């Protein structure tokens, strides 16, 4: 068990109840909405069933013991599958009435990955059979395989085409390929070992072991040039361009998916702790935000002043990512630290009278984005289950 004080344990219990209540409040007959229905949420289309958001919620709703949430988990994946593109891609989001599907400006690659992960979770732990969504799964995997490099066995993508949708990561992206390896393991896809091998050589080019492939050695040379080992995986690797801003979510997912060995996993954790990225609430999603003077800065990052330093994906605090941080700590056996971080996460969700804020400014802690974020609630529940030993991926 944990040495947390009684008030913190009580807060964790309260947050668990509030999380379940929020998921039920945001549930429609067709699936789970990304956020609570407000005028602002409607205007910004947060009252949609998002591929990535819904998948994370599905894993928390499954096993909740609440019949409505259990049924809503299946309905969420059904709604996304019903709007699957002919080429196999799962939409970025669909509206609850099934009238609209959006695929983002340069394509949304991770909705398909998350949908597959949630499908596998429901097949293993929910009420559906092992062949449920079989045709949709085959098409989704085929779409992803068409984007896999035939030697590196890693997915390739445009910039700003995953959850960090106004960050300039492109080529081989850490976050996306951590999910891809997880999908490969879950569905027993070919070349998983090659994916693991090249993942660790491309995203960690500072190790002593040289890759065998001559193009991988050249990318390694570009990545190392003029840089020091950041203590974690690079956020992306492209031809002569890499990201060393410190992508917390991608690194945490690399731990959870088994891509990082024990030594690398502990280095990642130590680097995130040294940067105080989880203080006062977990967790800042970038350790070294990109300034306007940085070579990777893009004009679109400053649109509406949204992705400037310490904001949004460029160093804001995202509680749902904090849930994955707690799960990674639990997986590594760092239970006392994980319980402490879970308490901090409950505080973040409690802020503003249980506002379940989308994200906070990384320095001022000002609450930003939409209230009533479903995946905040879901990630908290998944993190607590991981610590209690009652959850399974």
UniProtKB/TrEMBL annotation:
InterPro entries: 6-hairpin_glycosidase_sf (IPR008928), 6hp_glycosidase-like_sf (IPR012341), Glyco_hydro_100 (IPR024746). Its EC number is 3.2.1.26. GO terms for molecular function: hydrolase activity. Keywords: Carbohydrate metabolism, Glycosidase, Hydrolase. It is an enzyme of class 3 (hydrolase). Pfam families: Glyco_hydro_100 (PF12899). It comes from the Bacteria. SUPFAM superfamilies: Six-hairpin glycosidases. It catalyses: Hydrolysis of terminal non-reducing beta-D-fructofuranoside residues in beta-D-fructofuranosides. Belongs to the glycosyl hydrolase 100 family. This is beta-fructofuranosidase. It comes from Variovorax humicola.
